[in-house]
Task: structure prediction
Amino acid sequence: MKKIILVLALFAISIPINAQDGSMENLQTIIDEIKLEYAPDKRVALFDISYKNNDSGFILAGETTELLAKDELLKKLELAKISVQDSIKLLPDAELKDKVYGIIYNSVANLRATPTHSAELVTQAILGTPVRVLKQEDGFYLIQTPDKYIAWVDDGLERMTKAEYISWYNADKIIYTKEYGFSYSEPDEKSERVSDLVLANIIEKIGEQGKFTKVKYPNGVEAFVLTSETADYKTWLENAYPTKENIVETAKLFKGNPYMWGGTSAKALDCSGFTKTVFFQHGVILDRDASQQVHKGILVDTENGFDKLETGDLLFFGRKARDGKREKVTHVGIYLKDNEYIHEAGQVKYNSFNKSASNFSEHRLNGFIRARRIITSVGENGIELVKDNKFYNGELK
Result:
């Protein structure tokens, strides 16, 4: 009799344990499904959710930038009759209080993969870039840039309240139009320099003095910039638009500029930083990486050669799908004409698809994957103008 009672007791205990195991498996499946739907690319959306269980049930932990994803997760768990305690942190972090907006005040700010100085440089943001501040850790801030890229910055960020961000948005501003230059402490080129400047830096305008424009950086520092090296920001914003001619003209400005992984400014660039910087000067926000840019714009037919390519098309290179391995896009350039293209590879330079040309690259020809047309896709196919971007048009929440 004692043996029978013991067996029954063990059987009774095993039921909730197995049920718990099934719930854990189902819970993880639901988390994975939500992440795949709402945050498949961690570069632009965070959904880092984990769980643990105790005597009272499951506790959800982690963080996300996606409110809809969190709501959908809780809804699906309720439908699956999985009881949870919600401890998920929604970013921006409440510890930031109301200063969850920011403007970059360095000519170029470095953004890293993790909050350490030795971490990989994944991208940059230039002076006047509005950002969303997500959280703080060890003196670094996790921010999201207008192309939705998420990374860590330790310096060059001025945090703001919503009112301060709107004030910056409404202020008169200039955009810097020279590839590289300086601002000065006085309206005199011989005066002490305040900072360097790069193409497309945006600064608040507070006056004019002779041949200089007086400006104010987001952190309150005042300086003078040669007016001849600037344009009115609002005018630029309304009229900036890509054409075959202006894309090529701007691309050629960077010829010879050195390669730097993570670079997105006139100082130094990587391949996608080059295409991104060129198109931004003409009012277009491209995605940060080549593997993201390849999904935007209109696909150009290159199945039978390069005859259908047009000036300004983006060319993508990498590893083609074969032998069970997935395609991997690793490089991007801009098509010029007559089989020639310009790209950042060691330095900004020209290469050709023509095997008879002196600058023919067999490596690039073998690695060519496809081309996308950006210029005729503005406003659709994932191609957004700066003036329509919520970070720049005052609609950032």
Notes: The two ends are 69 Å apart (CA to CA).
